[in-house]
Design brief:
394 residues; alpha+beta; Aminopeptidase; 3 domains; twelve-stranded mixed beta sheet; 36% helix; elongated; binds coenzyme A
């Protein structure tokens, strides 16, 4: 199509609800809106490029493009892409943990702004109604095919604005943005058994093309006699198993060492895991060296338990690994018991009240052990369901 009149005739065929969606998309992401227009034209059998759309729009004013729009509740809100400084005023709309993570991620984001995304929905009186945080996640399973999805880390609508379609509007913005930026899909972890589980599952409904699969479990513990009794049992097992052990447990170094660096390099060329890597950009945390351990065999590193503080009173057990062959040696339990004792049950005055970690059901043996031993004494056990929307290949 080459004429402006042809473009206007096409616009007249677009239903009001689709125009409304385009209108709010234009406010947040004009590129995505132009791409959507190309798609809509395609659905009507008309071939257009985004450059042609840009040219036609520049010759029409906004009123002409978006007249006759029925303004529903969600259309009286503008979607804004937030940068690190504007995000500060919106952070009350997410969890304390996510506040720190999102602020750091946005502040570190350089010229390539595809890594971290924050969208806010703002009302006519500049009310901050809803916030969505998302980041690029690499779900590729091998080097051959790339699978980069936009992972929705948090979507929260302020209480007075719920049930008006704002959650869906935000998610639609994220979807459009991800399509325009050539992501392969969306990923939404949904915590089960919460007050908002039903709403999240409806937002990412399987009727709308999303898939559902079991995800990780987030476990929280705090100091209690039941946890101490469990620790005592672990220590008894360890003292029996450690009698003939050929491994040694060692403190975790305060600073990166040549030995740790050597193991990181070695892991790149093998199927073995790597410990915390100070050069990896995806770690937003520093190890709590005093509450972490290394495992050695004949002078070589064969495992580790690395923790970090998520808040002054909560230690996250973040990286727990032993090389194949060491799983039943007593070494993993020895590291776990040693950290639990010194961090939470020592005679020190600065004991840490809480601990948390993530268990992956795909790691069947460990998850089975955790379900049997830790779940009964845990404070919180939050199962996450993975919801994924895969975009068809263009
Ligand atoms: C989940 C949440 C984002 C939904 O926002 P919302 O703007 O109210 O949702 P919408 O109006 O767009 O509705 C989306 C769907 O959910 C459904 N829904 C909304 N609230 C619901 C509820 N309480 N129970 C069941 N379904 C609900 C709607 O009916 C709609 O489904 P449909 O389109 O199939 O009819 C909002 O409830 C929220 O912010 N909850 C708190 C989330 C939170 O605290 N997260 C913290 C960790 S990230």
């Amino acid at each position: 199509m080459t004429t402006l009149n042809g473009f206007k005739a096409l616009r007249a065929l677009v239903p009001a609800d689709v125009l409304s969606e385009l209108y709010s998309l234009f406010a947040s992401d004009p590129d995505a809106a132009r791409q959507r227009m190309v798609e809509i034209a395609g659905e009507k059998g008309v071939t257009l490029t985004t450059d042609q759309v840009r040219g036609f729009l520049s010759r029409m004013d906004e009123d002409e493009v978006f007249d006759n729009i029925e303004m529903s509740a969600s259309q009286s809100f503008q979607c804004r892409r937030l940068d690190a400084s504007s995000l500060l005023d919106w952070l009350h709309l997410t969890t304390p943990l996510m506040r720190k993570y999102a602020s750091t991620a946005l502040a570190l984001q350089g010229a390539d702004d595809r890594h971290f995304l924050a969208f806010g929905l703002e009302g006519e009186e500049h009310e901050h109604a809803a916030l969505l945080l998302a980041e690029l996640t690499d779900c590729s399973r091998n080097d051959q095919s790339s699978d980069q999805r936009l992972c929705i880390l948090s979507v929260v609508v302020a209480k007075p604005f719920r049930h008006q379609g704002l959650g869906r509007t935000l998610l639609r913005h994220a979807e459009r943005w991800a399509r325009t930026h050539q992501f392969s899909g969306l990923h939404l972890p949904v915590p089960l058994q919460t007050n908002f589980t039903d709403a999240m599952q409806r937002l990412a409904s399987t009727d709308r093309g999303w898939t559902a699969s079991p995800g990780k479990v987030v476990v929280g513990l705090s100091i209690s006699s039941a946890v101490e009794a469990l620790l005592q049992r672990l220590e008894n097992v360890v003292s029996r198993q450690a009698r003939h052990a050929s491994w040694q447990m060692a403190p975790f170094p305060e600073k990166q060492t040549a030995e740790l660096q050597k193991r990181i390099v070695m892991a790149r060329h093998s199927k073995l895991a790597a410990p915390w890597d100070p050069d990896a950009k995806d770690y937003e945390w520093q190890p709590a060296a005093r509450h972490s351990r290394l495992l050695r065999h004949q002078g070589e590193i064969v495992g580790w338990l690395i923790t970090h503080f998520v808040s002054p009173d909560c230690l996250r057990y973040a990286k727990f690994w032993v090389d194949p062959g060491w799983e039943r040696s007593g070494a993993p339990l020895a590291m776990l018991a040693s950290v639990m004792r010194s961090a939470h049950f020592s005679a020190n005055t600065d004991v840490i009240q809480k601990g948390c970690f993530i268990s992956h059901p795909t790691n069947y043996l460990l998850h089975h052990w955790i379900t049997k031993q830790i779940k009964p004494v845990s404070d919180s056990w939050i199962e996450i369901e993975n919801r994924d929307l895969i975009f068809p290949l263009a």
